[in-house]
């Protein structure tokens, strides 16, 4: 399935029922097929229908939708979400932010042993240069930076000679860039910026021009001020100065520490209006490298650079076998999407109040430091939430806790975009498995809620936790927030009968213990069906099929209605093969 989406604001969802699926479990490592779920395949799914499916415990992997059979599967997976505006970061989450900011400011040296998390991994020289050094090695790094700036100035001088701005027969010494001592900063600085380096190359150029006596321009054209302006203009044509702002003052070319900048821009190609570029630097210390963090939101599509990062992540973090990783499996898992794209209209439609500037659909959020791709978050943006699907990152940056940092950024994104879409207020973290220690971090984003697997009501995590401490599967909505004791006695009976029904129905593939357990033939009458390209309800189909076909179809439709619910069964199109 291609990830190319329709630009339609509506459309219809078309699904094929894959039925029950059993497999070994990657969480508890059970040797038997103890992981049990129900599956759907779809190549067209509206964002509203997927939002409704999320709120019934479904998730997607590419174009495959799956819902754990909670009472039967070995490791029940509870959908977990957080209302973004209620989020209160913990001290540890605040430390994650500060640590990354220190890294960007050049104050934090990520050592190879830290980045590899005690793995015996070689770190390439380009990565070492990007990661840089902290304060302890600052003095050793000043010389290379000044040498690089000198080379850029020399190149600008040569271009001025080639263009005729300077005479071709002058003898000019190599430029010299010097570190500015604190005593001289106020004298040379124009404002309050922190002055780091300076070059007076304009003065020997002026002297050399005068010696040749070949100047063909006016008297003022050979002043140090004019020469330095020409050099700066040439330097700006060919590139940037990461972490530095460059100005001329009284004939000197001065390099200042850049200040923090946040701007919104549209990245060329498939980037979106909400793409952001963030440049961070430290203004209180003389740091050699001021690293720039950029975050770009892009439509889901295959990107070779992202794929290479994904391979490194899977090999070094998850210890996957190289032969198990392919472009096909990567695209099927993280690129292909059935979600129908919804963009704000250009005519100022009132509906745009409920659509963020980037629209709804599937996205890849890229994190870059000084242009290097260090992480990619795979997300879905839906009418009520940002749903986090997967994150892969550069193993050399492991100690920056990029998983936690990206979650904080995504929560911030939801907060910011509520101004455009008031209904978009939740952050979905995927599934939470209480028995899996690796998933415990999700509950640290507070105050979070878990979805009750029986009634599909949201229950505060602090209410659910003691229940899950006792048993893996629990009907969470049987308990109130005010008390951990059971709600009315009828609920206890319901829980008991549910357990009895589970025992009896464990081997019956057409049964499921959820709130629609009373589905019968009459309840499926309005299921919407696609047959040979035509749309019709099941009650209309009954007029043209015989009893044998009816007996074959009816259990399938009953099972389907149970897992998707009455509303979606009548809205989504069930494709008969």
From TrEMBL:
Catalyzed reactions: an N-terminal L-alpha-aminoacyl-[protein] + L-arginyl-tRNA(Arg) = an N-terminal L-arginyl-L-aminoacyl-[protein] + tRNA(Arg) + H(+)
Compositional bias per record (Polar residues), positions renumbered to this chain: 271-283, 487-496
Q: Which UniProt keywords apply?
A: Acyltransferase, Transferase, Ubl conjugation pathway
Residue span of region Disordered: 264-283, 487-518
The EC class name is transferase
Entry similarity comment: Belongs to the R-transferase family.
Could you identify this protein by its name?
A: Arginyl-tRNA--protein transferase
Gene behind the chain: BnaA05g27760D
């Amino acid at each position: 399935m291609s990830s190319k989406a329709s630009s339609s604001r509506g459309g219809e969802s078309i699904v094929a029922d894959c039925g029950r699926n059993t497999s070994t479990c990657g969480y508890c490592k059970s040797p038997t097929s103890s992981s049990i779920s129900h599956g759907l395949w779809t190549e067209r799914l509206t964002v509203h229908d997927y939002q409704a499916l999320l709120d019934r415990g479904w998730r997607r992997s590419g174009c495959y939708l799956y819902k754990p059979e909670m009472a039967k599967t070995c490791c029940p997976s509870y959908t977990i979400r957080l209302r973004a505006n209620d989020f209160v970061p913990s001290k540890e989450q605040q430390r994650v932010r500060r640590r990354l900011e220190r890294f960007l400011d050049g104050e934090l040296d990520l050592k190879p042993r830290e980045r590899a998390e005690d793995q015996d991994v070689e770190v390439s020289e380009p990565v070492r240069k990007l990661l840089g050094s902290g304060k302890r090695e600052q003095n050793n790094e000043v010389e290379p930076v000044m040498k690089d700036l000198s080379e850029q100035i020399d190149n600008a001088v040569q271009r001025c000679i080639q263009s005729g701005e300077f005479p071709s027969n002058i003898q000019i010494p190599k430029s010299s860039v010097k570190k500015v001592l604190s005593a001289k900063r106020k004298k040379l600085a124009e404002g309050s910026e922190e002055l780091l380096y300076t070059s007076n190359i304009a003065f020997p150029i002026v002297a050399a021009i005068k010696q040749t006596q070949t100047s063909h321009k006016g008297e003022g054209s050979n002043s140090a001020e004019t020469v330095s302006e020409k050099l700066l203009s040439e330097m700006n044509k060919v590139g940037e100065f990461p972490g530095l702002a460059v100005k001329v003052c009284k004939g000197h070319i001065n390099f200042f520490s850049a200040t923090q900048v946040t701007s919104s821009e549209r990245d060329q190609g498939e980037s979106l209006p909400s793409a952001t570029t963030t440049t961070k630097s430290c203004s209180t210390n003389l740091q050699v490298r001021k690293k720039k963090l950029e975050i770009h939101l892009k439509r889901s599509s295959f990107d070779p650079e992202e794929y290479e990062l994904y391979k490194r992540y899977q090999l070094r973090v998850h210890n996957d076998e190289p032969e198990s990783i392919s472009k096909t499996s990567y695209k099927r898992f993280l690129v292909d999407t059935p979600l129908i794209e919804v963009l704000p209209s250009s005519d100022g439609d009132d509906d745009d109040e409920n659509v963020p500037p980037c629209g709804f659909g599937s996205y890849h959020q890229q994190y870059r430091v000084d242009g290097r791709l260090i992480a990619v978050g795979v997300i879905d943006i839906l009418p009520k939430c940002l749903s986090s699907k997967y994150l892969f990152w550069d193993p050399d940056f492991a100690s920056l806790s990029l998983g936690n940092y990206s979650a904080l950024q995504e929560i911030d994104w939801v907060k910011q975009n509520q101004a455009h879409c008031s209904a978009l207020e939740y952050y979905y973290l995927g599934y939470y498995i209480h028995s899996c220690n690796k998933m415990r971090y999700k509950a640290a984003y507070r105050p979070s809620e878990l979805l009750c697997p029986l009634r599909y009501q949201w229950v505060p995590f602090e209410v659910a936790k003691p229940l899950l401490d006792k048993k893996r599967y629990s009907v969470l909505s049987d308990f109130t927030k005010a008390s951990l004791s059971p709600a009315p006695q009828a609920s206890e009976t319901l829980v008991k009968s549910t357990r009895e029904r589970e025992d009896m129905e464990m081997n019956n593939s057409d049964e499921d213990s959820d709130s629609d357990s009373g589905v019968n033939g009459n309840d499926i009458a309005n299921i919407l069906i696609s047959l040979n390209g035509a749309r019709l309800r099941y009650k209309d189909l009954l007029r043209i099929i015989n009893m044998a076909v009816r007996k074959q179809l009816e259990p399938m439709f009953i099972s389907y209605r149970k897992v998707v619910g009455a509303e979606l069964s009548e809205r989504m199109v069930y494709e008969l093969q």
